[in-house]
């Protein structure tokens, strides 16, 4: 792999949280490439485990060929490159602190609340009774985190003002899981619902979902091409082994 080319970011499917950060790459507008990762298939291979030993997306391969995992680390990497402050705020400013607070909450409490719902779906040897217990806990955790987020959201169009930031990106990648799991009634959380509707109508997020679904899509022009995961794994093998 050419190590001086654009960074490569994963688009995990189905329903990957990475869709949020794909939208952030689009909003940032700097050149990048994507690699689609089937989370039910090729993510489970030994080759992928060498990319991310915790067998998760998202993963970023920087232009130097370094592998960076974890949503928060990748969000901070994006923030550091956002010198025009399109999706972040001046480091050290109160708004930057608040952005980090949102990203941390969304990536921990809010995202983690769905874990029992995923476990109920994916636990291979669970009985129906065990699955229902997991779903019950999941619904209660997701409800609690929705109530908390609803109370945090102000009157602005986005989480931190009148334009989308990394916080909205991290939110949007995960918020749609509530529908998939039928975990809450979205109408009970009008501010969250309005925010979701706004971001889900945004061309950047629509582009992220189209890529996730394997459809041809035209984004902002910043995305310079899709790289097959096999090529990414081949290209990073040497760097990781080093
Ligand atoms: N702590 C990680 C968690 C990422 C995560 O939960 N990824 C999900 C997809 S959105 C995943 O890969 N789950 C593994 C699976 O589906 O088995 C991060 O924030 O990046």
TrEMBL record:
Membrane-crossing segments per the record: none
GO MF annotation list: transferase activity
Pfam families per the UniProt record, alphabetical: GST_C, GST_N_2
Record-linked InterPro entries: Glutathione-S-Trfase_C-like, Glutathione-S-Trfase_C_sf, Glutathione_S-Trfase, Glutathione_S-Trfase_N, GST_C, Thioredoxin-like_sf
SUPFAM superfamilies from the UniProt entry: GST C-terminal domain-like, Thioredoxin-like
Keywords: Transferase
Keyword presence, Transferase: yes
Domain annotation GST N-terminal: ranges: 5-86
Domain GST C-terminal: 92-218
PANTHER family named in the record: GLUTATHIONE S-TRANSFERASE GSTA, GLUTATHIONE S-TRANSFERASE-RELATED
Protein name per Swiss-Prot or TrEMBL: Glutathione S-transferase
The organism of origin for this protein: Pseudaminobacter soli
């Amino acid at each position: 792999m050419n190590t001086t080319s654009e960074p490569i970011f994963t688009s995990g499917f189905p329903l990957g949280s990475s869709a949020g950060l794909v939208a952030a790459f689009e909003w940032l507008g700097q050149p990048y490439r994507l690699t689609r990762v089937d989370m039910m298939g090729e993510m489970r291979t030994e080759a992928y485990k060498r990319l991310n030993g915790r067998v998760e997306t998202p993963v970023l391969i920087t232009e130097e060929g370094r592998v960076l995992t974890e949503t928060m680390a990748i969000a901070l990497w994006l923030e550091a490159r956002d010198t025009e402050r399109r999706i972040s705020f001046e480091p050290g400013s109160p708004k930057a602190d608040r952005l980090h607070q949102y990203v941390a909450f969304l990536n921990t409490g809010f995202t983690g609340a769905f874990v029992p719902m995923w476990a109920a779906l994916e636990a291979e040897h669970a009985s129906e009774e065990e699955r229902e217990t997991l779903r019950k806990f999941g619904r209660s955790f997701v409800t609690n985190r929705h109530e908390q987020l609803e109370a945090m959201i102000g009157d602005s169009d986005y989480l931190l003002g009148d334009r989308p930031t990394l916080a909205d990106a991290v939110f949007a990648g995960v918020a749609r899981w509530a529908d998939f799991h039928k975990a809450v009634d979205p109408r009970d959380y009008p501010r969250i619902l309005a925010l979701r509707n706004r971001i889900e109508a945004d061309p950047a997020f629509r582009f992220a979902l189209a890529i996730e679904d394997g459809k041809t899509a035209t984004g902002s022009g910043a995305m310079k091409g899709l790289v097959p995961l096999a090529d990414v794994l081949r290209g990073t093998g040497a760097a990781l082994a080093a």
